[in-house]
Every structure is written in C-alpha cells, then in structure tokens.
Amino acid sequence: MRLWRWLDSQFLAPAPAERLATVRVLTGAFAVIYLIARANVLGDFRVQPGRFVGVGLAAGLSGPVPAALQLAVFALCVISGILFTLGMRYRISGPVFAGLLLWVTSYRNSWGMVFHTDNLLVVHVIALAFCDAAHALSWDARSQPRAEDSGRFGWPLRLLMALTALAYLLAGIAKLKIAGLSWTDGEVLRDQIAYDALRKSQIGSLYSPVAAYWVQLDWPYPVLSWLTLLLELGGPFVLWSPPLRAAWAAGLWSFHLGVLISMVIAFPYPLSGVAFAALFRCEKLWQLRALSRIKRLLTRAEGMRSPLNTTK
Amino acid sequence: MERVRAYALSVVLLGAVGWPAFREPSNDGFPLSTYPMFAQRRGRVHEVVSARAVAADGSAVLVPAALIANAETMQAIRTLSRAIRAGEHESQQLCERIAGRLASDEQRRRSVRVELVTERVDAIEYLAGRAQSELVRVHARCPVSGGAE
Fold first, then answer.
1. Which residues of A touch B51 (CB under 8 A)?
2. Is the separation of the CB atoms in A232 and A169 below 8 Å?
3. Predicted ipTM?
4. Mutation test of the interface with chain B: which of A205, A255, A256, choosing the one with the most B Cβ atoms within 10 A?
C-alpha cells in the first residue's frame, strides 16, 4: 500500500498541461518535417530498394503493396501529423497518426535493412497519441478554459522519459551481451568507425572525413567506450533528478553528434533535441520571441496560462 | 480511471519496448529493437562488397547507392550483401538490375559492364592510405546495354 502511494506520488505528480502540449507540438512538428524531408525513402517506392521482408506492422505482408497505395498512405500520414501537431480532433488524429507513422516506418524498414533512427520517435508518438496532450496549445482547447496542473499531464511526461531511458538501456545491454565488458577496451568502437568508413567508401558514398585520421589514434576509444556505456546504462538511475537528467540528455546529444561526425550516421530525432523535450520544462520555449507567434496560432491568448508562470 | 489508463498504457509500452532485452541481440526488429548497432566486434580486416561499372579500357568506377537500391547508403550495402550471400542467381539478377539503371544514366554511359565483387582490406591501413584492397571474388558480371564498347 505504501509502495503504491509512493509510486502514485512520483508517477502521477501534477504537471502543467502546457508542458505536455509543448512536447506534442515539438514531436509532431519534428515528425512532419522529417516525413517530408525524407519522402524519397519513406514514401516513394516506385523503385524497390531490396527484397521485401515485412517488419513491424508490415510483418504480415507476403510482398510489397503497390507504390501508389504506399504513397497515398504516406500522404495521409503527413496530413494526420499536421492535425496531431495542431491538436485538431486529437482523440482521432492522435491514434490515426500514430498508426500511420508506425505503418510508414515499418514499411521503410521492410527491405532487408532495419534502421534504428525511427524507433524512439514512433514509440513517443504512440504514447502521446493516447494521453491528454491536446488540452493546451491546440485547436481543440481554443474554446476551453485553461486546464489546471494535473497528474494526467504529468504521467505521460514520465512515461516518455522512461521510454527514452529504456531504449538507450537496451543499446547498452546489447553491447554487453554481444561483446561483454571488453566492449570498453576501445577496439570495438575504433574498428566500427573504420569499418563504417571503409564500406561507405567502397560504395562511393560519403564517409566521415575525420574518420580516416581519427582511427589512427588509440587513446580516445577506451574513454569514449566507457562514456557511451555509462550513458546508455545510466538513464534509469538519473531520471529522478532534474540536473542529472539534463546532464544525461546533454551527454546523449553529444554522443549522437560524435556518431554523426565520425560515421556520418544521423539520428535526427535525438540530434534535434526533441527526443529529450519531456525531460525539461520545455514550455519555457514559448518565451522565445520567434516562437510566440506560433503559440498565438495554437492557443487563445486570454484562455491560457502563460508558461512564464509554470513552476513545476 | 485516469490512474488505470496511466498504469495500463505505461505497462504495455514499457513492456513492449523492454521485451527485446530478453531476445538474442541479433534477433532485431522494428519498432521493438534490441539496438545491436555498434556492438559487434569486427576486427580490422574485412571483406567488403561493391558494384563496379567497368569501361571498355578496363577502368572501373564504383556504382553509387542510388543505382543499387535507393538514396540510403546502408540500404544499398545490405541489398548488395544479401544478393551476394543468396548466391549466383540473385547476384546475377541484381547485377542486371544495376546494369539496366546504368544504361539509362547519362553520366555512366561509358560503362560496358557491371561487376559485383568482394574485396579484402585492412580498414585502418586502407583509410590511412597505406594499403590497397585485394580482389577476392567476382560474383556476377553483366553487360550494360548501349554501353560505349
């Protein structure tokens, strides 16, 4: 009983509606921009990129669907993503967007190569789709009175934090399962960077210009390996503390920047910072002059509490 | 009711995302992944696959990812590796698809044939410019129709 009460006090602690809504707006806007920017590989399958092996929602398919149908689903996904971001008919547009995004990314991963760039985004969108993320900064909330701080806006944020920490924890566990603690000797990381540059060079693709120099050095890799493992395994232990989780998010962002520089592998969602929005008082972003106009579009000014006054 | 929804959705999502921790890391999936990237011990010497467009004078250039699969480099590498692993028939089919795309590519009309090859190379020495790759095997060879013979 006491454990339940403690769990409730932590997990269901109140948070401002604006914070969760800001995470929804950021995640939705990121997803829409990402979908449009990567339309050539997410929506266009006129040329089949490999042998079809369905994964995720596409696992039940025995073969690819017509390219025109996939393009139509992709277009619907973008439209529902815009509605999700604006918080329009959210009880419908939220789950619809989550389902379509899962389909579009599953289909993209169904050609023999499973990418790891979309997983966290998809899981976050699913979580946001089934909670009250449109009670502020949304079309739906324009004519409603301002929502009070509540546990129903708090637990989704904690769920997003936990999902983020869990995804990185799994990456750390995989390293320990495959290579053991010897992963930290640095050789695995150095060879990985060299291998990545080599195979990209052999296919005439862009590879990191710094990789060729960097892999000639020995000393950075044990340090970087330890730091990587510490960040990946450490998430669940730092979420309770705002300063620690800020440091954790900054560490992970730096890790992804390092991966981008050394291997030209972009994880756009964490690199954009949006993946970590739930870890911060992100509603403060609306104080930025550049974003205030967007805020006015999303909400009725007199009906909404100013994020300036949120203190939780 | 809100409490039930909070715990039910959290248990379902966290359970689903965490479940792959109990699978073999190589048994990857989407969106529920074991995240095995960068975990494998690879060593320094590799056998890497590539597609080469060979001109009449014997000079060769690498076929870019977009003509093998699509704009994604990793997808192209995987498509190439899969076809070669699957054997002669699939390698030949992929080779012919690439040759077809090359035939309609203005910039590569000079090519007379396509080859899918495996080369062995020490990655670190190669990147430092101290070593060259060594041809191990040609898996498939096919003509480019309309190529400048």
1. 203
2. yes
3. 0.91
4. A205
